[in-house]
Design goal:
The chain starts with 11 loop residues before the first helix and ends in a 27-residue tail after the last helix. The protein has helices spanning 12-31, 47-52, 95-107, 156-161, 163-169, 171-193, 234-242, 280-299, 322-330, 337-346, 356-367, 421-431, 443-450, 463-471, and strands at residues 61-74, 77-84, 87-94, 114-123, 129-140, 197-198, 204-205, 217-220, 225-229, 247-255, 267-276, 303-306, 309-312, 318-321, 376-382, 391-392, 395-406, 409-416, 456-462. Strands 6, 10, 11, 14, 15, 16, 17, 18 and 19 form a nine-stranded mixed beta sheet that branches. The chain is α+β, with helices and mostly antiparallel strands.
C-alpha cells in the first residue's frame, strides 16, 4: 500500500472512495485484534517539551501522541511526522525495531490518524530531532482524509464551518486560538492582582439594558415570560456597586441581534469592570496598562502588524477630545450645526430628521476613525449619546466618556458613571424615544441608585477585537472558534468560495 504525503482535493466521489479505502483498513485492524479507537494512553510528554528539552548528551526515552501529518516510506522503514497542539516531531519506524506486527500496523495507517508512540530520541544527519519508535499504538482511525495541504487550508468558508479542520491544517489558527486563551488569562490576572472581584450576572434579562442595541428574544415557559439575552451586563454590575462590592469585573457573553461583518458577530465576548471612587481617567490608565502588559507578554515588543498597518502600542497613548479630532479631520466645529449637516450631506450621510449629536457621531466615524491607527483615547463625547454618564464639568453638552481606538477599531468604551438617581431617571425618559434608540426603562436600576451608588469609573473592552489587534487578525471570525454563519448552500467537501 503506497504512502501519500498529500491527498488530492476532494469531490464527493473521491471522498467516498477514500472513506471506503479507510473502512477496509479499519476492518483489517480489527481483524488483527486491534482496537482502532484505542484507550487511555498516559504518561505523555507534549511535543514542544520533547524538542525543547532534547540533549545530545543523554539517551532519553519518551512517550508521545499526535495526528499523522505525513508518511515517507523507505523499504523496511518509514519516516512519519506527527503533530499535537504544541508542535510537531518526526518519527522513525524500522521493521527490526518495532517488529513485524507493528510494521504491519504501519501499513494500515493514513494521514490524519492519531497514534501513540514510545521510543528513544536522536538527531538525524540533517539535525532533525526524531523519535526512534519501539512501540506503536493506534488511538483513532480517521475515516476521512485531512485537507489537501496541512500547512494552509485556504478555503475561507470551510475554515469557519469546519473549524476542527482549520485547527488541524493551519498552525496559525491553532496559535491564534491559544493566544486568545493567554490573553483572557492575562486579563483575569491583571484585574485579580488589583483587587477586583470576578462576578457573574444574568444572561437572560427581563429588560435589555446597558447599551443601545436590538436584543434576541426568548421565552420562559414555566413563568410565561418573554426574556432577552443580554446586550450588556452594565446595570447589574452597577447594582453590585450599590451593594458594596467596590471593584468588580465580568468576562461575559453578550448578544446583539444586528449585522455581521469583519468586526461584528452577534454573540461576542466583553470585559466589563467597575471601580468605586474612580472615574474615566482611572479607567483610561487601567486600560493602557492592561493592554501594554498583554502585548508585551504575547509579542515581546510594542509594535504589531495588523493587515497592511503597523501599529505602535508603546505608552503613553494619545488622548484627544471628540471635538478636537472632529475639527482636525472633518474641518467642522461641533457647535456648528449647519456645518455638521453640510459636511455630513457631502459625504452621503443621513441628516434628515436626525439628532445633531448623531450626525456629529456619524461624521466622526466617517472622517476621523479611519485615521486612528495607533492607540487613541477619544474623550468627552456628546452627552445625548451617553445616558449613563456624568457630564463634563463646565460643559453639559459633553459627557465624561472615552472610546479607545486601535487600528481604526473601537476596542474599549468607558464612562464616569452617573450615580444620581433622579438625573438618571430623567435621562432614561428623555432617551426613550425612537430617535436615539433607547429601549425600556429599568425601574429596578433606578430604585437601586436611590439607595446610593458610589462615584465610579466603568470600562467595557471588546475582547474579540482586542484579540484581533494583538494577534494581527483582521477578521473577527478568525479569533472566534465558531462564528455565526449562514447555513451552507451546498454540501461541505466540494469546491467552495468565501
Amino acid at each position: 500500500m503506497p504512502f501519500l504525503r498529500h491527498e488530492p482535493a476532494l469531490c464527493d466521489d473521491t471522498m467516498e472512495k477514500f472513506e471506503q479505502d479507510r473502512l477496509e483498513k479499519l476492518k483489517k485492524l480489527r481483524a488483527k485484534g486491534i482496537d482502532p479507537y484505542g484507550k487511555r494512553y498516559d504518561k505523555l510528554i507534549n511535543l514542544r517539551s520533547i524538542t525543547e528539552n532534547y540533549s545530545a548528551e543523554e539517551t532519553k526515552r519518551v512517550r508521545a501522541a499526535g495526528r499523522i501529518l505525513s508518511i515517507r516510506p523507505h523499504g523496511k522503514a518509514a519516516f512519519l511526522d506527527i503533530r499535537d497542539w504544541t508542535g510537531k516531531i518526526q518519527l522513525y519506524i524500522k521493521l527490526d525495531t518495532v517488529g513485524g506486527r507493528n510494521f504491519e500496523i504501519l501499513q494500515l495507517l493514513d494521514l490524519g490518524d492519531i497514534i501513540g508512540v514510545e521510543g528513544t530520541l536522536f538527531k538525524t544527519r540533517t539535525g532533525e530531532i526524531t523519535i526512534l519508535v519501539e512501540e506503536l499504538v493506534v488511538l483513532s482511525k480517521a475515516l476521512l482524509p485531512p485537507p489537501e495541504k496541512w500547512h494552509g487550508l485556504k478555503d475561507v468558508e470551510l475554515r469557519y464551518r469546519q473549524r476542527y479542520l482549520d485547527l488541524i491544517a493551519n498552525a496559525q489558527a491553532m496559535k491564534t486560538s491559544l493566544d486568545r486563551v493567554k490573553i483572557i488569562k492575562g486579563i483575569r490576572r491583571f484585574f485579580d492582582e488589583r483587587g477586583f472581584l470576578e462576578v457573574e450576572t444574568p444572561m437572560m434579562q427581563l429588560i435589555p439594558g446597558g447599551a443601545v442595541a436590538r436584543p434576541f428574544v426568548t421565552h420562559h415557559n414555566t413563568l410565561d415570560l418573554d426574556l432577552y439575552l443580554r446586550i450588556a451586563p452594565e446595570l447589574y454590575l452597577k447594582r453590585l456597586l450599590v451593594g458594596g462590592m467596590e471593584r468588580v469585573y465580568e468576562i461575559n457573553r453578550n448578544f446583539r441581534n444586528e449585522g455581521i461583518s469583519t468586526q461584528h458577530n452577534p454573540e461576542f465576548t466583553m470585559l466589563e469592570a467597575y471601580q468605586a471612587y474612580g472615574d474615566y481617567n482611572d479607567m483610561m490608565n487601567l486600560t493602557e496598562e492592561m493592554v501594554c502588559s498583554l502585548v508585551m507578554e504575547l509579542n515581546g515588543n510594542y509594535e504589531i502588524t495588523f493587515g497592511e498597518k503597523t501599529v505602535h502600542l508603546s505608552p503613553p497613548w494619545k488622548r484627544a477630545t471628540f471635538c478636537e479630532l472632529l475639527k482636525e479631520n472633518a474641518g467642522v466645529d461641533f457647535n456648528d450645526t449647519e456645518g455638521l449637516v453640510r459636511e455630513a450631506s457631502r459625504l452621503g450621510l443621513k441628516t434628515q430628521g436626525v439628532h445633531r449629536d448623531i450626525i456629529a457621531n456619524s461624521l466622526f466615524e466617517e472622517a476621523v476613525v479611519p485615521k486612528l491607527i495607533d492607540p487613541t483615547f477619544v474623550i468627552n463625547y456628546p452627552a445625548t449619546l451617553c445616558p449613563l454618564t456624568k457630564l463634563c464639568e463646565g460643559n453639559p453638552q459633553l459627557a465624561q466618556r472615552f472610546e479607545l481606538y486601535i487600528a481604526t477599531m473601537e476596542v474599549a468604551n468607558s464612562y464616569t458613571e452617573l450615580n444620581e438617581p433622579l438625573e438618571q431617571e430623567k435621562r432614561f425618559l428623555e432617551q426613550a424615544g425612537e430617535e436615539l434608540g433607547w429601549g425600556k426603562i429599568d425601574e429596578d436600576f433606578i430604585l437601586a441608585l436611590k439607595y446610593g451608588m458610589p462615584p465610579a469609573g466603568g470600562l467595557g473592552v471588546g475582547i474579540d477585537r482586542l484579540v484581533m489587534v494583538l494577534t494581527g487578525n483582521t477578521s473577527i471570525r478568525d479569533v472566534i472558534l465558531f462564528p455565526l454563519l449562514r447555513p451552507a448552500s451546498r454540501p461541505i467537501g466540494g469546491d467552495s468560495t468565501p
